[in-house]
Amino acid sequence: DAGVIQSPRHEVTEMGQEVTLRCKPISGHDYLFWYRQTMMRGLELLIYFNNNVPIDDSGMPEDRFSAKMPNASFSNLKIQPSEPRDSAVYFCASSLNNLNEQFFGPGTRLTVL
Amino acid sequence: DAKTTQPNSMESNEEEPVHLPCNHSTISGTDYIHWYRQLPSQGPEYVIHGLTSNVNNRMASLAIAEDRKSSTLILHRATLRDAAVYYCIRNFGNEKLTFGTGTRLTIIP
Fold first, then answer.
1. Could you say which of A4, A37, A77, B89 would form a disulfide bridge with A105 (CB–CB 3.0 to 4.6 Å)?
2. Percentage, residues of chain A above pLDDT 70
3. Is B74 an interface residue toward A (CB < 8 Å)?
4. Of residues B43, B93, B96, nearest to A91 (C-beta)
5. Pair A40, A107: CB distance under 8 Å
6. pLDDT tens-digit series, residues A81-104
7. Sign of the C-alpha dihedral, residues B103, A59, A82, A10?
């Protein structure tokens, strides 16, 4: 397996634009996680899914953020409208079950100007 | 909130063992201890996890105190590739992992 795949790897956009980050989890994994990492706040869990259903979105910062998982092989995280403070590295991770290790993707570095 | 305490940074010489400490004094009986590491410009990577007994795998060993209030990640022979931020995480028996600030490990050639 190729591991968790994220796209794009880098995204530069202007304030107010919509941003879409994509993730393909490892095949067969039931859990998918979205994290955000900044120097100030470290690594934060935004939302996670189990069998394509959102379980906990308490980490989503505001209504500008939304995430969906339409099927077992794809999830996206949208920010609309984007703001400079959204600049961060966004990681997607997947795991086989609730106690197994999480496998992280390479991340998407988002810069909002 | 999940609370673990780790030193901000540590240094070790290459090819020597490294002992990374973690305090989790408020741990409950069903909490697992997970360790992840993050190499520069990469996503976090699972290292090891355990509940009560000491655990070994190809990457490291995890020594858990008898009272479970602390644990130590042991890298048996550090290499330059082990330079990373190491996170000790309590897991409340569910799938959520709460990352702290971790320990930045520097390996001296």
1. A4
2. 98
3. no
4. B43
5. no
6. 999 999 999 999 999 987 779 999
7. positive
